[in-house]
Request: fold
Amino acid sequence: MTRKQKRLAIIFGFGAVLAAALALILTGLRDQIVFFRSPTEVVAGKVRPGENFRLGGLVENGSIEKSPNQMVRFRVTDGANVIAVTYQGLLPDLFREGQGVVTEGRLDPSGQFTASTVLARHDENYMPREVADALKKQGHWQPGKGEGPPKP
Amino acid sequence: MSIEIGHYALVLAFVIALFQASVPLWGAVKRDGALVAFGPQAALVQLALVAIAFIALTKAYLASDFSVSNVYENSHSLKPLIYKWSGVWGNHEGSMLLWVLILSLFGAGVAVFSRGLPDDILGATLAVQAMIAAAFIAFILFASNPFTRVIPAPLEGRDLNPILQDPGLAVHPPLLYLGYVGFSIVFSFAAGALIVGRIDAAFARIVRPWVLVAWVTLTLGIAMGSYWAYYELGWGGYWFWDPVENASLMPWLTGTALLHSAIVMEKREALKVWTILLAIITFSLSLLGTFLVRSGVLTSVHAFAVDPERGLFILMILIAFIGGAFTLFAMRAKAMETGGLFAPVSREGALVLNNLFLAVAALAVFVGTLYPLALEGVTGQKISVGPPFFNLTTIPLMLPLFVAIPFGQRLAWKRGDLLGVTQRMSWAIGVSVLALAGIAYSIARGPVLAIVAIGLGVFILIASLDDIRERAARGGFEGFFRRLFNLPRAFIATCLAHAGVGIMVIGIAFTAFEKEKILSMKPGDSTTLGEFTLTLTGIAPLTGPNYTATVAQFQVHDGTKVVAELRPAKRIYVGRRMPTSEVGRHRIGFSEVYVAIGETSEGDRVDLRAYWKPFVTLIWLGPALMGFAGLVSLSDRRMRVGAPRPVARRNEKMEPAE
Reply:
């Protein structure tokens, strides 16, 4: 191979790998992303039936019902609207009433949300940013609650 | 009092860093050795001062001095001693101080090992390192000061986040930071070489040991973090593609690429532009990771208490350094001539292929991590990019790279012989195919991709190690052991590190065959788990030093006898009233039985999650071997000798940049 041919071969190889990678990334970004929705957005019909999405808000006070086989029902609220959630499995350690929560799953035809995951957090004071924003939108955001530890 | 001394020492360190950032640089540009000589001294003084600051904070933690706001927020008098230690870096301010300490440590390291470094490179490098240090010390002093007092002093602290109260946390952040921040010195060397305008094989020789140190610690730090997440969080997973994990993976990917491209630059004077670029990119990604973690712009389970002001500060540091480095790079890029021609099939070609795949994988992780941020900025839509995206993009990119590993390490420089290499591996290929058939037969059912991946892992493991035997056996059996012991350590390190990749691949592939059960049990109940039976024998309360716990006792039975007793627990910490899980695990060979309990209801009914995880420990043993291999490579003679000392370089005319 001449020097020019070698260079062409290398450039072509590079181009092929890069193109394949970009194709993968773009496909991934089209098909594999998960939207975050607040209960108000869900009620407004922004979710396609059967779409996998993340639902975030506060766990409504007094809404947690546990039954055998790790079935848990609770309601997620953003202050304006409420979505009922069912989840089968172990809840994260910091799952509590009145606290922020993010769950991922699908809506069934009756408007009930079946969660496949309930996301855990590492810190009791931590409020997922999406949840904080959703609450702010509904005017139910209390600064200082969940926004880091209170200053002494 | 000592806390004020620490505060003052940090302010002094800032001043010293400013001095170090200017005088030696001036010396490097003006070729004045006397001015450059201030650099190493300043670097040592800076380290001493930052160390005093760090010790002062540590002392406040050990003494539970709650008049210090940072100690009050993150410590508790009942906390066991080891967590008073590790609590120093278990919070934002303290961990930034550790960050700066390590930054100074690397600067001082270059100062100590500066023998053989040309003056101008030394001066410019230490100056750039000091600029980074000055920026971050300023960040600590102005935006996250751990030395502020609370008056009046509270009687009791708010305790450290309980999930951070674990031996793993004592080790994970320092290791990770050593790696993350270690790439700063590589960045400084690159910027220094660009400033001086001398980019040649000597640069690669100088920088390689530092790349290795940073890479080894980053590898071990990430593995440690993954292991900690596995046993502490109770989810049974080892990698979650969380933004913060990605933030550490990106510099690892480009750092690994750098490790390989520096070899080409050192041996063949090729890939110069690319190596310098990688050095800049790797530390830029470390800075980006720091920004992502500290600013809270991305939702992550790792969130520290979030403060937009801090995020903005780090963003400014990030832009200044990345922008500055790329400007320098652009100015010098023309002067960097590409040297050393090679055939596509050659050692160089293989290393280029390695770099291509690693860099593209880093790009995929980068896009996936930052896309939600970009999309929200543009359209306001909130999305998350999770494991499906990263699995889809990185697995197809990694598999060809993995297949290429054993071939690449055998190819000759300049022009390789792929057919010959394959023939030399025929033994290893044969054994791997047999192993693959054996595994496929014994597993019988399961995802094909996972079975193939296991076979691939076995292939990488055997073929990488077989290279050692093959080299030693060259020339017959006589003298085999003599040749074996005389093999260059760098070569043995290559084989071991690649074997580590194989081991990790096997471990990851076997996760496809794990067994999971989620159920609730009463004392006396049993359940099957793979070939084991799990019996709940009792539930008991327990009081620890700063927590109370509910402990469930399980027996693991293998059909003939009880093989283990597991005691997973749910703890409630006194300080924060926060529950955490303690996992019960039993290791059998490389596999594990893993039980995590949830809440207890009706007095004695406990929810639990039980796993049989075949060969799971290989996931961390692989990286551990990679890290060990890095140390072996560091001990190679060539690394210690370093760059040949230039004689009377100072008197020469300025060389054209190459």
User: Anything to note?
Assistant: Confidence is low (pLDDT under 50) at residues 143-152 of chain A.
